[in-house]
């Protein structure tokens, strides 16, 4: 399936160049954990991340006038319950359901809310209590198509679906397990510099290849470890930034249901929305210093890097993985990504955004890279066979 | 028994899982049709031993199925069934559609 990219030409009402003056001035992540302590709740976990992000921004709950949240496990509460319990008095409120694409979606809306004057300090958050029971419930009842057609197979989660997608990618591009392993190994090396990652001990290619198979060709280290955790950022109109170091939002574009679940799933909606993101941002894929790409599986890292133009169509993918990703010449998923840091439910996409903001603001500690620009992809919501939601955010460091 | 797909009564486009509106002609009337056989496109083996497959059917239909009554390889034409106990010979089990709308 080939996607016609969104462009300024076929979106004539849109500006072709970024005119937004909206930035992220704070980011925070609650400590990720594979085994949450008794008494841990989704609300407290998200509140923890929000508190860290506000502190990072030098703001208090009283400064917040906009709030967006995404969570699979907040039920029966909603965004307004959390706002109430956090003490937010708001003029703008949003709840998002787009899983791995939730961060980009909420950010896209938040930018427009600020640009329109509906709010000036927006907290965007995502998180989940994701213990074994919550994970089993989530994947069994992910949507009605899953509940009716996948869970009865039985299938407990998307590993088999992405195993088959990975096989198709291997066949199409001549890739082998070692190629994917080099991505996992590199991300684990990045994770060593991230105290918040749940897996930080070095991973060798032999460890990767020798791990138990989950769904061939996927082994244990191809699959993200579910964790309990939350992430949050503080998005403000530039006049509220008060000279703080900022991650200026150059563009956010999105594509949803780009392929009706037809075809091989090897191209994501990013193929469609990325060109407009680069055009609006006024930068090119090769200008990007830090990339957070949604890494639910290594094959999706490859697919999305191709879709956003960092990995050129027709390039030698195995060589790119070896010389750019495995060598860490390119700063991709510098937190360790979800593969090493963990997947905190609907915070999976927000995790990469928090990492990009911390890199641009010089807060990335032992894994800090020289970074002026960053790109963050979101991908998620498997309707039946593969993800259906995608978005790309382009950021720039500014004072 | 066969797998069941949804066919647009106006333009004959085929769907699985079921949709509310035909994305080709925007029609809203659908019939349930039997899909007796498909072609195995990709397979994977889970750690519990189950073989899961993507099975294609004419009209851009892709089933996610469990192979029962044997094993299957990519390229095989395979019988489709919505009954997981229908395993006296190899088949692709596709849980019934039609309950989610």
What's the short story on this structure?
Chain A is of the alpha/beta class and 399 residues long. Chain A has 13 helices and twelve strands.
Helix content of chain A: 25-40%
User: Helix tally of chain B?
Assistant: 0
Q: What proportion of the residues of chain A form beta strands (DSSP E)?
A: 15-25%
How many domain units of chain A? 1
The value of Rg of chain A in angstroms is 19 Å
The N- to C-terminal Cα distance of chain B equals 22 Å
Q: Order of strands across the widest beta sheet of chain A? A: 3-2-4-7-1-8-12-11-9-10
Blueprint of the fold:
The complex is a heterodimer of chains A (399) and B (101).
Chain A lengths: L21 E8 L12 H16 L8 E5 L8 H8 L5 E5 L5 H15 L4 E8 L3 H9 L3 H6 L9 H15 L3 H15 L13 H6 L2 E3 L2 E2 L9 E9 L8 E11 L13 H12 L8 E3 L5 H10 L9 H10 L4 E2 L4 H5 L6 H13 L12 E10 L4 E12 L1
Parallel strand pairs in A: 2-3, 2-4, 9-10, 9-11
Antiparallel strand pairs in A: 1-7, 1-8, 4-7, 5-6, 8-12, 11-12
Helix pairs in contact in A: 7-11
Chain B lengths: L2 E6 L5 E2 L14 E6 L1 E9 L5 E7 L3 E8 L8 E5 L9 E3 L8
Parallel strand pairs in B: 7-8
Antiparallel strand pairs in B: 1-2, 1-3, 4-5, 4-7, 5-6, 6-8
Overview of the molecule:
The complex is a heterodimer of chains A (399) and B (101). Chain A has 399 residues and is of the alpha/beta class. Chain A is built from 13 helices and 12 strands. Chain A has one domain: 3-Layer(aba) Sandwich (Peroxisomal Thiolase, Chain A, domain 1), CATH 3.40.47. In chain A, the strands form 2 sheets. Chain A has a 10-stranded mixed sheet, with helices on both faces. In chain A, α7 runs parallel beside α11. About 2% of the residues of chain A have low confidence. Chain B is an all-beta fold and 101 residues long. Chain B has one domain. Chain B has a 5-stranded mixed beta barrel with strand order 4-5-6-8-7. Chain B is elongated. The chains are: A alpha/beta (399), B mainly beta (101). The interface between A and B is medium-sized, with 30 and 27 residues.
